[in-house]
Amino acid sequence: MIESSVVEGLPAEGAVLLRMSGSLDTEGAQAWSAQLRGHLEQADLAGLRPVLDMAHVQLGGAAVLRALSETTRARSGRPDLVIVRARPGLREAVHLARLDGVRLYATLDDALRELARAATRGADLPAWRSQISDPLRPSYEDLRKEVRALRARVRSAPVIGMAQGVVMVRYGLPDPAVAFRVLREVSQRFNVPLRVLVSAVVVARPPDGAAWFPGRRPLPVPPLRILAREGRDPRYRRQMIDAVLHEALAAGRACAGYVRCVDPAVNALVLESDHGCADTFLDHLVRGWDEGLPDLVARLLGRRVSVPDVAADTLLSEESRRVLLGTGTRAVDSVPVLSRSGSCTGVITLHWPEAGHRPTDDQSQALALLASDTAAWLSWYHRSVLLDALEELHRELTGLAAGPEGARGPRRS
């Protein structure tokens, strides 16, 4: 299986990341080769540099080498095929085979840095030009967001792997590709982010019967005082999280801010929505370098944390202070989202460019009310939408486990 997405690449040319997953035997390699050629043709038409991510390829060998060799020969005169995150056995095989038109890099960042350096030197630029006019090319702001999203996916990959392993063992699935396909389909059908769904699979108690959560009844949406605006559907997580940030920016009269929610599988804050924050700061968050940031402290303490002067406040770590000051942030306020039991499920953070800024009493009350609304909605979402998705996942996987020979049922794990 190959999925593609545009990422930031050369200054003059973009790049397309082709994410490959599954197990490759001789037959699978032939099908993969045909699929890869189709993606490469589309990349050439769009003027994009192909980058193949092979981190999740389970098997390889001579069949894969033959497919790569045939593909690169057919691309004579085109840019080299860049491969990132290949497993050691495949990397060694490619080196020994001395395939022309293939470059290997340990990470996506390494590949993009090298391609950018080559473009700066004026070397290795493709002689061909895109058949798509420049106005239709993605903006570099969109590309930077895509790179940031890719880094976030890399951080969530271990949880996805754990969820694949759980459902493979629980339902007796033949390989991780089948597990991933069902997880992704249920995620899309219920509009639940894959990261949220797999985290729930990992932490939820295992099912013990035909229903994962027997006796569960539909829950009404809780009364929301700020978030209940016309056109907002509480079943759509992204829409509601964006609404939380919109209301927070308006209440605090802030020019920048972000919302992070707790991922229970890794017990960490994960960025879900942002506005007006500099790319360097967002990269800082996505890479997990958040030690000493006010929102992390607010989560740990379970109370609001205000930093009216970033330059002088001792609460911040030196690295966090440096990043905030470097992006023009001089004051910060973080409000935790607390459940009824008092546990923190997320944090709303606002940034201001003026040192000495503190929210007024009215603004603080509005932000506290918004945090209460957010906690009530998140609780409902996890007990309604997310559990609906888990029930559907259980039904589908139980059907796969039953197979043509009759019901076998899931194993407890």
Tags for this entry?
5-stranded antiparallel beta sheet, Transcription Regulator spoIIAA, 5-stranded mixed beta sheet, transcription, transcription regulation, RNA binding, 413 residues, ANTAR domain-containing protein, 17% strand, 3 domains, STAS_dom_sf, Beta-Lactamase, alpha/beta
Number of H/I helices: 13
Number of distinct beta strands: 10
The string of secondary-structure elements, in order, is EEHEHEHEHHHHHEEHHEHEEHH
Sum up the overall morphology in one term: globular
Biggest beta sheet summary? 5 strands, mixed
Q: What is the chains' assembly state? A: single chain
What is the arithmetic mean of pLDDT? 80
User: What is the alpha-carbon Rg in Å?
Assistant: 24 Å
InterPro entries: ANTAR, GAF-like_dom_sf, STAS_dom, STAS_dom_sf, WH-like_DNA-bd_sf
Protein name: ANTAR domain-containing protein
GO molecular function: RNA binding
Pfam family, one: ANTAR
Compact description:
This is ANTAR domain-containing protein. Keywords: Transcription, Transcription regulation. By secondary structure, the chain is an alpha/beta fold.
